[in-house]
C-alpha cells in the first residue's frame, strides 16, 4: 500500500466518522423534546450557549488573523495556511458538538420521563458521540489532506495545523471554564447557601447560565482540548519519522496514520455497543465500549507493527500508551468516585466544617499525583526502550487512538447534567429526576476520568512534541549547568502557576459580578420566591459571557508570548529548559487541581444522597463550599494547563527557525 492510497483511506474513514455523527445528530433531532416548559428551558440553554460561542469566535478570529500574518511573514505561507485549517476544523468540531449536545439535553430528560433509564442513556450517549466523532473526523481529515497535498517532504508544515488546533483549544478551555464556573458559583453560593433553594431551581436567576456553562466548558472545551492532543500526537510522530534516519520515513508516517484510522473505526464500534446496552448499569455500558475499542486498536497495532517494521517494537510502545491511559482513568475514578474511600472521607469530615473539607480535598488532589506520574514514567521509559524517541511519540498516539469514544463518554456527562436541570426546572416527577441523577452521577465520574485521561495524554503529547523540537533543533542534550537553561527551567516551572492564578482570579472576578446580580434580583424582585415574578436569566447569561471573553485574553496570550520571548532572548537550549520546567510542574498541578475538584464535587453529591445528614445539613453546607472552591480547580485552571504546556511546545516548534 503506497502513501497516497493510505492517506486517501484514512481521509475516507474520517469522512465516515463525520457521516455517522451526522446520522446520530438527525436521530437525536427526531426524538421528542418533551413538554412546552421543557422546550422553553432547552431553548434558553441552547441560545445562551450558541451566543457565547459566536462572540468567542469573533475574538478568536482577530487573534487568528494576527498570528496568520506573523506566520506568513516570518515562517512561510504554507505553515500559515495549515494554521488556519487547524483553527477552522477545531472550531467546527466544537460548534457541531455543542449544537447537538444542546439538543440532546431536553430529549434525554424526556426519554427519562417516557422510556426510563435505557432510553435516557441512549439519547445522552449518542449526543456525546457526535462530539467524539467530530473530534476524530475533523482532526484526521485535516492531517490526511495536508499530507496528500504537501507530501511527507513538507511534514514540518503540519506544526502549523497543530498550532491552529492548540490556539482554539486554549481560548475555548479558558473562556468556557471561566464562564461555567462564574455561573456555577453564583448559582450555588446565593441560591443554595444563602437562600436555601435546591440546585437547578427555576427561581434561581443564574440557573440557565449554569446549565449553559456545562456545555461551553465541558462539551466544547473538552472537545477542543482532546482535538489538539489527538492532532499533536500524530503530528509529532510524523515529524519524527520524517527527520530520523533510524527508520523508513514512509513506514514511520504510515503507522500512526493507519493506527488513527483503526482507532476511529474502533470508536464507532464501541459507540454502537454502548447504544445496544440494557441501560441498567450506565457505568458498565460506558466502560465496555471503551475497553472493546482499546482491544481492537491493540490487535491492529500488533498487525501493523509486524507488517511495517517486521517486529513488535511499535506495538510495545502503542500498548504502553493504551494501558497507561486506561490505568490513569481507573486511578482517577478511585480518587473522585463516591464509591471509594477518598471521597467518603471528605464527606465524613464535612461534619467538622468547610475548612477541613478544603484541606482534605486539596491533600487528596496532591496525593493523586503519585500513581499517574509513575505510570507516565513507565510509559516513557518503556516506549523509549521499545522504539527510541519515535516510541515515545507512538505511546501518545496509542493513548489517544480511541479518543472518539473517550470524548463521547465524557460529553455524555454534561448532557445528563443538563437533563437533570431541565427535569427540575420543568417540575417533572421525582422518578424522572432519580434517573437523570443516576446518569449525572455516572457522568461526574466519567468527566473526572476524562480529565485524568486528558492530563495523561497531554503529558505524553507535550513530551512527544518536545522530542520533535529537540530533533529539529539538533539538540542532543540540555546542559542544566548552563545558567540560561536554569533560567529557562525556572521560568517554565513558574508559568503553570501564573497561568492558574490568572484563570482563577478571572473566575473570582466573574463570580463576584454574578453573585451581586443574583442577590440584586432576589432583593428587588421578592415575587421570584413565590413565582409571581420571573428571574432575569438573560442578564446572568450576559454577565458570564462578557466576563469570560474579557478575562480569557491575557492567559491565552501568555502561552504564545512566553516561549517566543525566551527563544528569541536566550536561545534554543534555554527554551528547552522552559518547556521541560513547564511540563513537570504543569502536569503535577493539573492532576492536583482536577482530582481535588472532582473529589469535592462528588463528596457534596454523596451527602446530597442522604449521607451525614443529607441536603440542608451543616455537613452539606460545608461540602457545598468545598465544591465551590473546587469548581475553578477542576473546570477552569486544571484542564487549561493541559493546553498551556502543549501550546507552548507547538509554538516553540513552529517558530524554531527564528531562534536558530
Protein described:
It is a single chain. Helices cover 86% and strands 0% of the residues. By secondary structure, the chain is mainly alpha-helical. The longest helix has 44 residues, at 430-473. The chain is globular and about 75 Å long. The model has no long low-confidence stretch (mean pLDDT 89).
Describe the structure in brief.
This protein is mainly α and 660 residues long. It is 86% helix and 0% strand.
Number of helices: 20
Major sheet attributes: none
Tertiary shape: globular
Structural class: mainly alpha
Average pLDDT rating: 89
- The span between the termini is 38 Å
Identify the quaternary structure here: single chain
Task: Using the CA coordinates, give the radius of gyration.
Answer: 23 Å
How would you spell out the order of helices and strands? HHHHHHHHHHHHHHHHHHHH
The poorly predicted ranges are none
Number of strands: 0
Percent strand equals: under 5%
Share of residues in helices = over 70%
Amino acid at each position: 500500500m503506497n502513501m497516497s492510497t493510505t492517506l486517501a483511506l484514512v481521509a475516507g474513514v474520517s469522512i465516515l466518522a463525520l457521516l455517522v455523527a451526522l446520522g446520530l445528530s438527525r436521530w437525536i433531532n427526531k426524538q421528542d423534546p418533551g413538554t412546552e416548559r421543557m422546550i422553553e428551558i432547552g431553548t434558553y440553554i441552547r441560545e445562551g450557549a450558541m451566543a457565547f460561542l459566536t462572540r468567542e469566535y469573533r475574538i478568536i478570529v482577530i487573534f487568528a488573523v494576527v498570528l496568520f500574518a506573523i506566520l506568513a511573514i516570518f515562517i512561510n505561507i504554507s505553515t500559515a495556511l495549515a494554521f488556519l485549517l487547524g483553527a477552522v476544523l477545531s472550531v467546527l468540531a466544537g460548534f457541531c458538538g455543542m449544537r447537538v449536545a444542546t439538543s440532546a439535553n431536553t430529549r434525554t430528560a424526556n426519554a427519562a420521563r417516557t422510556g426510563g433509564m435505557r432510553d435516557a442513556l441512549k439519547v445522552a450517549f449518542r449526543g456525546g458521540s457526535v462530539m467524539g466523532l467530530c473530534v476524530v473526523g475533523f482532526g484526521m481529515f485535516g492531517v490526511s489532506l495536508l499530507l496528500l497535498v504537501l507530501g511527507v517532504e513538507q511534514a514540518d508544515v503540519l506544526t502549523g495545523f497543530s498550532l491552529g488546533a492548540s490556539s482554539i483549544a486554549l481560548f475555548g478551555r479558558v473562556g468556557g471554564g471561566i464562564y461555567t464556573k462564574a455561573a456555577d458559583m453564583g448559582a450555588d453560593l446565593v441560591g443554595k447557601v444563602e437562600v436555601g433553594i435546591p440546585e437547578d431551581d427555576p427561581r434561581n436567576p443564574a440557573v440557565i447560565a449554569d446549565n449553559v456553562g456545562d456545555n461551553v466548558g465541558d462539551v466544547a472545551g473538552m472537545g477542543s482540548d482532546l482535538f489538539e492532543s489527538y492532532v499533536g500526537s500524530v503530528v509529532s510522530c510524523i515529524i519524527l519519522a520524517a527527520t530520523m534516519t533510524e527508520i523508513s520515513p514512509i513506514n514511520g508516517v504510515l503507522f500512526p496514520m493507519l493506527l488513527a484510522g483503526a482507532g476511529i473505526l474502533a470508536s464507532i464500534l464501541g459507540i454502537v455497543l454502548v447504544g445496544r446496552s440494557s441501560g441498567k448499569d450506565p457505568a458498565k455500558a460506558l466502560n465496555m465500549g471503551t475497553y472493546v475499542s482499546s482491544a481492537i486498536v491493540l490487535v491492529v497495532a500488533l498487525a501493523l507493527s509486524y507488517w511495517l517494521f517486521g517486529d513488535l517494537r511499535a506495538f510495545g510502545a502503542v500498548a504502553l500508551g493504551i494501558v497507561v491511559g486506561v490505568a490513569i482513568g481507573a486511578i482517577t475514578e478511585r480518587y473522585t468516585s463516591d464509591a471509594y474511600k477518598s471521597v467518603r472521607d471528605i464527606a465524613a469530615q464535612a461534619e467538622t466544617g468547610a475548612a477541613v473539607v478544603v484541606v482534605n480535598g486539596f491533600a487528596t488532589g496532591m496525593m493523586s499525583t503519585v500513581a499517574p506520574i509513575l505510570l507516565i514514567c513507565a510509559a516513557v521509559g518503556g516506549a523509549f526502550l521499545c522504539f527510541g524517541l519515535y516510541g515515545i511519540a507512538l505511546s501518545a498516539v496509542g493513548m489517544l487512538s480511541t479518543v472518539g469514544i473517550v470524548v463521547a463518554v465524557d460529553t455524555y456527562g454534561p448532557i445528563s447534567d443538563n437533563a437533570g436541570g431541565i427535569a427540575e426546572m420543568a417540575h417533572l416527577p421525582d422518578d424522572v429526576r432519580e434517573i437523570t441523577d443516576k446518569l449525572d452521577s455516572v457522568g461526574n465520574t466519567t468527566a473526572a476520568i476524562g480529565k485524568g485521561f486528558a492530563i495523561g495524554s497531554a503529558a505524553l503529547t507535550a513530551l512527544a512534541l518536545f522530542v520533535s523540537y529537540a530533533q529539529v533543533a539538533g539538540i542532543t542534550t540540555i546542559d542544566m549547568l548552563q545558567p540560561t537553561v536554569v533560567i529557562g527551567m525556572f521560568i517554565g516551572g513558574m508559568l503553570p502557576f501564573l497561568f492558574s492564578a490568572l484563570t482563577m482570579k478571572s473566575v473570582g472576578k466573574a463570580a463576584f459580578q454574578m453573585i451581586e446580580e443574583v442577590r440584586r434580583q432576589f432583593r428587588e424582585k421578592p415575587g421570584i420566591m413565590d413565582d409571581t415574578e420571573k428571574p432575569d436569566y438573560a442578564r446572568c447569561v450576559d454577565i458570564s459571557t462578557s466576563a469570560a471573553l474579557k478575562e480569557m485574553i491575557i492567559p491565552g496570550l501568555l502561552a504564545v508570548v512566553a516561549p517566543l520571548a525566551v527563544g528569541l532572548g536566550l536561545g534554543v537550549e534555554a527554551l528547552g529548559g522552559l518547556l521541560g520546567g513547564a511540563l513537570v510542574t504543569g502536569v503535577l498541578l493539573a492532576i492536583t487541581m482536577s482530582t481535588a475538584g472532582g473529589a469535592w464535587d462528588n463528596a457534596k453529591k454523596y451527602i446530597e444522597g442522604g449521607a451525614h445528614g443529607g441536603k440542608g445539613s451543616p455537613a452539606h453546607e460545608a461540602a457545598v463550599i468545598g465544591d465551590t472552591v473546587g469548581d475553578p480547580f477542576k473546570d477552569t485552571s486544571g484542564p487549561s494547563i493541559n493546553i498551556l504546556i502543549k501550546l507552548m511546545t507547538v509554538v516553540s516548534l513552529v517558530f524554531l527557525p527564528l531562534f536558530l
